[in-house]
Amino acid sequence: MSTLDxxxxxIKNASQRVSKANGWMGNAFKSWMPTGLYxxxxxxxxxxxxxxxxxxxxxxxxxxxNTVTRRLSxxxxxxxxxxxxxxxxxxxxxxxxxxxGIAQKLQLVVDFLPAGDMPPPGPKPFFSLLxxxxxxxxxxxxxxxxxxxxxxKSNLVEIRVQLDDSVMxxxxxxxxxxxxxxxxxxxxxxxxxxILLIVAVLFLRNQIKPILRLADAAExxxxxxxxxxxxxxxAREVRRAAQAFIEMKARVERSIxxxxxxxxxxxxxxxxxxxxxxxxxxxxxxGPEIDAMRKDVDEMSMMLEDYLAFARGDSGEVAQPxxxxxxxxxxxxxxxxxxxTATVAFHGLPVVTVKPASFKRCLANLVSNAARHANTISITxxxxxxxxxxxxxxxxxxxxxxxxxxxFKPFLRLDDARNQDEGGSGLGLAIARDIARSHGGDIxxxxxxxxxxxAAVRIPV
Length: 461
What we know:
The chain is an alpha+beta fold. The chain has helices at residues 3-32, 37-89, 97-105, 129-141, 174-177, 182-222, 236-284, 288-312, 324-337, 356-373, 428-438; strands at 108-114, 146-149, 156-162, 166-173, 320-323, 341-347, 351-354, 376-383, 387-394, 442-447, 453-460. The protein contains eleven helices and eleven strands. The strands form three sheets. Strands 6-8-9-11-10 form a five-stranded mixed beta sheet, covered by helices on one side. A four-stranded antiparallel beta sheet has the order 1-4-3-2. A hairpin with a 5-residue loop joins strand 10 and strand 11.
């Protein structure tokens, strides 16, 4: 392998590692980020503002505040150094009256203490720029033992300097050695930023509300419910999306109405022909062939009803609060009247907003499917704060796991898996799943604890 090939291989491996690292960092960043639009928009506003305020505060504190404080402290220490020089040059000033006069002109208060040990160091603030700056300047300009106290009196700074025969004590105004107006700048900076942030949060919340209303309207439409008070609001883009949703909803409803009208016409025509068949058979008389023809006509009528129900769906029905416990009791009564053993149990608040007739048809199809192939049926309902779950268990032969999705296809019959001697159009489960999905839910098939099939319906509440 040549040197070029080795280099290309190294570059390729390095790029792969960088790509994996970028993917890992991207996934980690996504896991830390909030999922809601409101929270993300707040982050978009808050993070730049915090960064900007931090940079401004750092620049001000580091470049302006520190510089001004150092210069003020250096000036105060220079005045003290000058007073010490005067004290050395004019020893004839026994009572130090002239020295005190000079210090007063420099806005300092000076007195002298007997020579002795300096006081022990007092408590220092954790972040004390004044202490640090004064210590540096005293060590640089005076080079004598000193002691400072910036904590004792709020508006004064006490400095003691060890001289040859005494201790010079100086009181200086804190404002003369310290840039004390920086807190005001920080207060105004934080205060104005907080006010602007509150205004931005209120404004953003008003902008998010139309998006939430649009999401609620779309969710209600997906569940087969109406959103009567919904209308386009908010920003231009949100209004455009809301208007597009309203137009889409109108097109879907218009298409359903046209399909329903067409099916109503087809149903009327076919039922008219079947009625003539029944009348003609009634006029012909009795006989084995006539009974077979009547059975075929009845079966054709039932198949026609199934086809129309599947094609029509649950259009036209309005969702309303329904007592599901009572609906399940009605299904149990129907099953027992046909000679089957059925049990019902319901847990939770029974009132759920559904399309009553269509949802009862969904459950009735599941129960009739179980009753066709089993002797014992168990119906269980449970409602929590999010979902309504209804399971229909039977002790029949069941359906193989590989075919549990296939049986939802229209007109499919499993002659080998479940007995089909009693006939049927093969649309029962397809109609049931179509109704469940029109409510925003679904139907899943599985193994029942009773040994047969379990049909589980879940819809959001």
